[in-house]
Amino acid sequence: MDPFQVLPSELILEILRHVTLADLASSRRLNKEWNELVTSNEDAIFKDFALYVLHAQPPCDHPDAKHKSWKQVCQCSIVSDLMRKHKIVTVDHIPFPDDFHPWRIKVDREHQLLFASTTDMPSDFVPDPARPAELPHPHGLTVTDLRTKRIIQTIPEVKQYAHLEYDAGYIVATGNGDIMSVHRTPWAVPSKPAATLSSSAAGETSTPDNPETDSRAEGPLVIHGTITSPGYRALRMNGTTLVTASETRIEIFDVPALQLIRRIEIPRRQIAMIMASRCRV
After folding, report:
1. What is the superkingdom listed in this entry's lineage (predicted)?
2. What is the mean pLDDT of the chain?
3. What pLDDT digit, counting tens, does each position of 201-210 carry?
4. In contact, 68 and 61? CB cutoff 8 Å
């Protein structure tokens, strides 16, 4: 039986003050009533957790303060603790140069590298003449060594505002139109030479490049090839598998082989049902 049916909200709130943050997050997903209860009482719930579990300082009312609520105090305290244990990294704690404007970020914790796509360079930007020649001004796809906090590689061919997916030593970056570029690291899962099976009717191909002959291999990333998925609107990578989705189909790619391995067409009737549900929302 749902406690909402038998217990007063004051008692439920008192119980929630003693649960973990993970359980609190789960309770918000139970239904609309639970979500509204937690959301409307966030300050009281997070205050107890911050004071008695995290032993954190109270929020600050200063306009420039990052922690203006008890929820933000908890978030910052937990992130800081994970960073001290070297379990996560955030861009706020890395002294990037002034001309670096990250857009999407992926982290390889095992090799202590941060991959980032960038936004547009400001129109009034003036290059720093004192910047070492071996450190190009970062734009495109950048690689940062988290141990030295320095950008060690820049790939300007990757477009600004590119979405990134990274796993198994491969990084996929969205490009212009339906084409995605694929770069690989020295520790990427090896693949047998294979041609790209493009999902377009034309059947375009892209053969994985040889890192021994790639003159652009000045850092951990070398170009691996391209993947084409017509009309894709979303993508996600898991291991060496890349999944893309458009309004009419789902496509699954083998990234090392740059090969389309499965296409799932979405029936028109199901598309109509999805669009109708969106309109009701």
Report:
1. Eukaryota
2. 75
3. 333 445 565 5
4. yes
| CA 52 distance to own-chain centroid | 32
pTM for the complete prediction? 0.58
- Go through the domains of the chain in sequence order and give each one's CATH number: 3-84 (1.20.1280), 89-120+135-161 (no CATH), 163-281 (no CATH)
Instruction: Tell me the one-letter amino acid at 45.
Output: I
The low-confidence residues of the chain, meaning pLDDT below 70, are 1-4, 60-67, 79-80, 82-99, 120-138, 191-218, 269-281
Backbone φ and ψ for 224, nearest 5 degrees, come out as: -105, -35
C-alpha 46/C-alpha 54 separation (Å) is 10
> Residue 65: what residue type?
A
3-state SS, one letter per residue, for 184-252: ECCCCCCCCCCCCECCCCCCCCCCCCCCCCCCCCCCCCEEEEEEECCCCCEEEEECCEEEEECCCEEEE
Report the C-alpha dihedral over residues 199, 205, 211, 216, rounded to 10 degrees: -90
Alpha helices by DSSP H, listed for the chain, are: 9-16, 21-28, 32-40, 42-49, 70-84, 268-280
What is the rounded CA–CA span in Å between residue 57 and residue 77?
9
The predicted-structure confidence for 122-141, as pLDDT tens digits, reads as follows 555 555 555 544 444 567 89
Q: Is 251 exposed, middle or buried (0-12, 13-18, 19+ CB in 10 A)?
A: buried
